[in-house]
Amino acid sequence: MSKKTFTTAKGRADYPYISAPDTKFDDKGHYKVNLCLSKEDAEPVIKLVQETILEGIKALKKDKPNMDIKQAPLPFHDELDKETNEPTGNVIIKFKSQYKPAVFDSKGNLMTQSNIYGGSILKVGGLCSFYHTKMLGAGVSIRLSAVQIIEYVEGSQGAEKFGFVEEEGFTLSEDVSTSETSSAAAAAEEPTPAPAKPKAEQAIKP
Fold first, then answer.
1. 4 exposed, middle or buried (CB, 10 Å; 0-12, 13-18, 19+)?
2. pLDDT of 49
3. What's the predicted TM-score (pTM) here?
């Protein structure tokens, strides 16, 4: 069966593992992202998933007409409000891949370095692939092929990560290294050794 490629509309990235893989359950890791779309924007993807499942089941039935086939979990679901647990009207599409996706900026330029965080607005290039297993049943996986960043929310590894902003005040001098500073501080704190006591002279026997 042929695999079907597509590109989504713009959506919000939730729990993205695009810049680095998620290795929590697998040492090799997987690249993935949940893309939040309006129902209207999600409809073409939902329709493609449903068509792919029906075509796959039809092909299975052609070879084994009496086969009982159950449906695997779908790769999309309604977004629920975190407080009320009611549908928000949006749909979450789940993308996943063993391979790192290509990342492009809004102008289509390839980005070799990125640190994409949740809340980024993306368009995602995906691929629908039918599968069937005895345990899960018949379903479709949506593979993550590429992303285009429309609005970039970048992770921080510096002071900003802890809520610090630039202030007037002390700045580490470029001509004094931290190792030199640490060594000087350690030397200043080192106690001065007490003078050695003279050795008692041995008594001279007559």
1. middle
2. 96
3. 0.74
